[in-house]
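User: My collaborator sent over this chain with a note saying "see what the structure looks like." That's all I know about it. Can you take a look?
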Amino acid sequence: MYTLKLLSPAIDSFAFKGEEVSNLSFIILNTSWVNLRFDYDSVIRVLEFKKEVRARIESVLDHGAIMEASSDWHAKRNPIPCGMTIHTGISCDFGCLYCYIYDMGFTGKPKPYNLSGLQLVYALTVNPYFTPGVHGTLLAFGSVTEPFMDNTLSRTLEYFRSLRDYLGNPQQVSTKAIIPDNLIDDLRLSVDPDISILISLSTLRHADKLEPRAPPPESRLVFASKLIKRGFHVTLFLRPIIPSITDREIKDILDKASSYNIETIVTGTLRVTPRILKNLEVSRVVDINQLKNRIPENLKPRVQEAIKSSDLKSHIIREAEKRGIRILPASCSANIDSHRQACAACYMGPCGLEEKLPEVDEEGVIGACKALGVRVSQVRIQNNIVNIKCIDKPDKCRVLKHLIISLARRTPKIKITS
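Assistant: Without extra context I'll predict from the sequence alone. Here is the result:
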């Protein structure tokens, strides 16, 4: 059994007061059930915990706030491969030429997200695809905004605290911004103590052209070093890898990162649209012909296409290995790593401490399906893949899929049959 394993021993150094202590105690008492087996009992306890948190929030929020949270996108959408993206704001003013949010319809004027911290917690508890708790759905802060911008920092800290205090899920944030020294303590007091922090960087030499209003790359590395000294888990996020830029600078980037005590990296592929391609061409620092050779011929407006980048990633991995830098296969693996957990929910795994993977067998999976009220006709487990024939409604089968990813940490292959 995992008992009282929600937070690391570092929690002793946190100054929880009043209601925060109550919330933390609530989580610990209600997650002591977390064990190494995926079965009927573990799923029932997840559902009970989710219901209890929801009831606690309902006792505090008024009807209007509850309705707003219930209709929010956080209450409805499926987690993506890296987990549930948490939007602490909308849009960004850094103006990075490769940013895709403008193709998604967001303006350049950023603003904090509209939900309060408690509303966000409530939204997640009504989301059928979200699993609460330390071994639940991974949380990824960022996506359509910069979480540490002046416009969004306060809301980001609020979300960190609320999600930590009420749900306890593993947190990760990706950023190019820099928090002032006097606010780093506020960050430490707000976050999950094992939070994974990704410092995004694509270039040292051409940031003024490609990321015109973002903090300088070396300033980000200085900030990363300060976080490392404070005990944070920091990873260099080489995303996006820009052909003719990141690959040509990689030796200098890795050497500079090492000089600031960064020991792990994650790589990420550039995604392009016609607008992004035009931006990079106008910059006059990107070899646009090389980039065009890596993308489909007919890009569609607002449709993001990942470039071919396997050779670029292999080159970066070789250079990192020469320097003794650990390479993690994806951003979510950095989250798993910082929380000393394990995951085999996709082809890149197992990631993390493999011995910490939950026990999964056919009997347990059948019990989990029963707990969810999902009808299945066959369960077969092969290596880390859970094969299921689901004879229920597609939405219920989708709930089962995400529970297997988050709680069993295995790869689900679900065939829906009538």
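A starting point for your reply to your collaborator: The first strand starts at residue 84 and ends at 86.
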